[in-house]
C-alpha cells in the first residue's frame, strides 16, 4: 500500500467538498480560484461537476493542466433510470452523450455514472439494472471514441429507492459484466461501501476495473444521509482497510475527497477545508 504520511501527491479534490455543486452553499469560488488553491497545495488534480463547467470545458481543462494537475474526473451522467432520470429514453441518452462530450472537452478520462433508482412501473432492482446495462452499453463506444472511461458508482443502500439500483461493489461489477465494454468500470466511494463486509473480496474481483477512489467518512450519528458526510477520521469507516483492498486490486490512481456537508465543512473557509483535507489524508488515510 502506498505511504501517504509524508506525500499527498495522490490527493485530489472533488469540488463537492467546497459546496460548489448546490446553489447557496460554499464560498462561491470560481473554477480558477479552486485550481489555484489546489495547485498551491500540490494536489494531483480536481474532479468537477457539470454545473460548474458550463460551456468552458476546454478552457478549464487547459487551466488545470497548466497549473501542473489533471482533471481527475467529471461528475456525472444523468440518472439513467428511476424517478429522477430525464423523462424519455431519448432524453436520457442525449444527456448521457452530452456528459461524455464535456468529459472529453475537459480532457478527463473518467466520467462517473450514478445510475438512478427503481424504474417507475417496476419493483426491486433487477429490471433497473438491466436498463442501466443496456444504456451504458449503447453509450460506451461513443465514450471510447472520445477517450472517456465510464465508472459505475455503487451508492449506499439508503439511496436505493430513487438514486441508485447498484448498492454494492458486487452489484456494480454485475452490471459491468452485463455491459462488457473495455472502458466501463467502477468507482469505490468510502461513504457508500464502508459497511460492506464483502468489500475486500469484491475489490479483488474488480481488479483493474476500479477507475476511481473517493474519500470521506461515515459519521456514527449521521444527521442527513445526503449532506452530512464526515471528513476522514471523524467517523467510523475503516479507511485504511478500504484503501488496502482497493490498492490490493491494483488501483494506483488519485484519491479524491468528496464531502457533502451542509452543516459543517460547507460553512468553513475553503482554504481551511483544503488544509484539513491534506492533513487528514496524510494522517488517517
Ligand atoms: Zn463518490
Keywords:
10 helices, alpha/beta, 8 strands, 8-stranded parallel beta barrel, binds zinc ion
| Helical run tally | 10
| Beta-strand fraction estimate | 5-15%
Oligomer: single chain
Record the strand order, biggest sheet. Answer: 1-2-3-4-5-6-7-8
Shape: globular
- Return the average pLDDT rounded to an integer: 97
| Helix/strand structural class | alpha/beta
Q: What's the N-to-C terminus distance? A: 11 Å
State the helicity in percent bands.
25-40%
Ligand types: zinc ion
What's the order of the H and E elements? EHEHHEHEHEHEHHEHEH
- CA-based gyration radius: 18 Å
The low-confidence parts are none
Give the total of beta strands. Answer: 8
Sheet having the most strands: 8 strands, parallel, barrel
Tell me what you see in this structure:
The protein has about 280 residues and is α/β, with parallel strands linked by helices. The protein has helices at about 30-40, 50-55, 55-65, 90-105, 125-145, 170-180, 190-195, 200-205, 240-250, 270-285; strands spanning about 10-15, 45-50, 70-75, 110-115, 150, 185-190, 210-215, 255. The chain has an 8-stranded parallel beta barrel with strand order 1-2-3-4-5-6-7-8, surrounded by 7 helices. Helix 6 (about 170-180) links the parallel strand 5 (about 150) and strand 6 (about 185-190). The longest helix has 20 residues, at about 125-145. The protein is globular. Bound molecules: zinc ion (ZN). Zinc ion binds near residues 153, 189, 214 and 258.
Amino acid at each position: 500500500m502506498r505511504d501517504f504520511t509524508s506525500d499527498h501527491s495522490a490527493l485530489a479534490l472533488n469540488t463537492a467538498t467546497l459546496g460548489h455543486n448546490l446553489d447557496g452553499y460554499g464560498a462561491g469560488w470560481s473554477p480558477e480560484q479552486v485550481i489555484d488553491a489546489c495547485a498551491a497545495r500540490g494536489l494531483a488534480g480536481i474532479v468537477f461537476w457539470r454545473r460548474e463547467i458550463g460551456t468552458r470545458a476546454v478552457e478549464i481543462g487547459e487551466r488545470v493542466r497548466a497549473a501542473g494537475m489533471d482533471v481527475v474526473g467529471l461528475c456525472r451522467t444523468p440518472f439513467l433510470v428511476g424517478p429522477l432520470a430525464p423523462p424519455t429514453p431519448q432524453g436520457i441518452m442525449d444527456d448521457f452523450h452530452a456528459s461524455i462530450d464535456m468529459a472529453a472537452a475537459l480532457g478527463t478520462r473518467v466520467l462517473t455514472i450514478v445510475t438512478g433508482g427503481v424504474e417507475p412501473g417496476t419493483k426491486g432492482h433487477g429490471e433497473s439494472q438491466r436498463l442501466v446495462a443496456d444504456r451504458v452499453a449503447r453509450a460506451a463506444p461513443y465514450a471510447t471514441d472520445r477517450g472517456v472511461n465510464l465508472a459505475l458508482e455503487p451508492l449506499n443502500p439508503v439511496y436505493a429507492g430513487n438514486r441508485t439500483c447498484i448498492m454494492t461493489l458486487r452489484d456494480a461489477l454485475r452490471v459491468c459484466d452485463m455491459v462488457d465494454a473495455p472502458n466501463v468500470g467502477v468507482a469505490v466511494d468510502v461513504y457508500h461501501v464502508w459497511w460492506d463486509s464483502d468489500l475486500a473480496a469484491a475489490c479483488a474481483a474488480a481488479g483493474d476495473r476500479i477507475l476511481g477512489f473517493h474519500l470521506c467518512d461515515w459519521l456514527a450519528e449521521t444527521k442527513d444521509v445526503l449532506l452530512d458526510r464526515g471528513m476522514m477520521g471523524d467517523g467510523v469507516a475503516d479507511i485504511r482497510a478500504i484503501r488496502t483492498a482497493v490498492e490490493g486490486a491494483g488501483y494506483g490512481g488519485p484519491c479524491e475527497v468528496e464531502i457533502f456537508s451542509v452543516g459543517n465543512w460547507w460553512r468553513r473557509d475553503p482554504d481551511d477545508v483544503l488544509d484539513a483535507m491534506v492533513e487528514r489524508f496524510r494522517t488517517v488515510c
